[in-house]
Write a structure and sequence with these properties.
Alpha-Beta Plaits; four-stranded antiparallel β-sheet
Length: about 230
């Protein structure tokens, strides 16, 4: 429906996670062409929060407040992948490896190791998106939000979520420091919005007006919930 009728390029994660819920490990092997059911493999969705006794995740989410159409991003990356662009293909092979390795970090509740994988993921995605023509990689506002918090000693990593309606970043933090990090992130954001000199000291290469677009940013804690209820 999304591909052929609505002409929106979206990832499978947007569909399966909502339907199944929980913390899921997803495999979409063989589904790149979005064929009809029975003409390609079914997706594999494991509820690993149940398997690995993960009752919560030490994560804070910041929605930038800046909306955009993510299908535009996906369409460009997907087209390059299907056209055999070697840089894009190699990048996604590396991302696939990071993905299966991350499952072991989750299995051990090893948040530091998981954070290291998230940092690798962010670096790869920034490179891939610049390669296909996006000047600021995963996004100007997303990179600002990441850099504001990633050097906090209580933060293991900050990463793009890939939200459909606009940019959202999550920070993986020490479990007992969630509230402190959330407050620090808010304060740092307010500081660059209200203090031009401080903003320029951190982001000399970015336009000043970017600060104003972040005034509506919102912060959230998370919880793991079931998927869509059966009717």
């Amino acid at each position: 429906v999304e591909d052929h009728d609505l002409k929106i390029t979206a990832g499978y994660g947007d569909r399966y996670v909502i339907a199944r819920g929980g913390l899921g490990f997803c495999s979409y092997f063989g589904k790149v062409f979005h064929k009809k059911i029975s003409l390609e493999p079914l997706a594999i969705y494991d509820r690993i929060d149940l398997t690995y006794n993960i009752k919560t995740l030490p994560i804070i989410i910041c929605f930038s407040g800046v909306t955009h159409e993510s299908g535009v991003v996906h369409e460009k990356l997907r087209r390059c992948y299907l056209n055999g662009d070697p840089i894009i293909i190699k990048g996604y092979q590396n991302l696939a490896e990071i993905s299966w390795k991350s499952r072991f970090a989750l299995m051990r509740h090893d948040w530091k190791q998981l954070g290291d994988y998230f940092k690798e993921n962010t670096a790869i995605m920034n490179n891939l998106m610049r390669h296909v023509g996006f000047l600021h990689g995963i996004g100007l506002f997303n990179n600002i939000l990441i850099r504001l918090i990633e050097y906090n000693s209580d933060v293991f990593a900050a990463k793009l979520t890939g939200a459909g309606g606009g940019g959202s970043i999550f920070a993986l933090v020490k479990p007992d420091r969630i509230d402190a990090v959330l407050l620090s992130w808010k304060e740092e954001l307010n500081k660059i919005i209200t203090n031009e000199e401080y903003y320029l000291s951190l982001f000399p290469e970015y336009p000043l007006e970017a600060r104003d677009r972040l005034k509506n940013a919102q912060f959230f804690k998370i919880k793991i919930v079931p998927g869509v209820k059966k009717l």
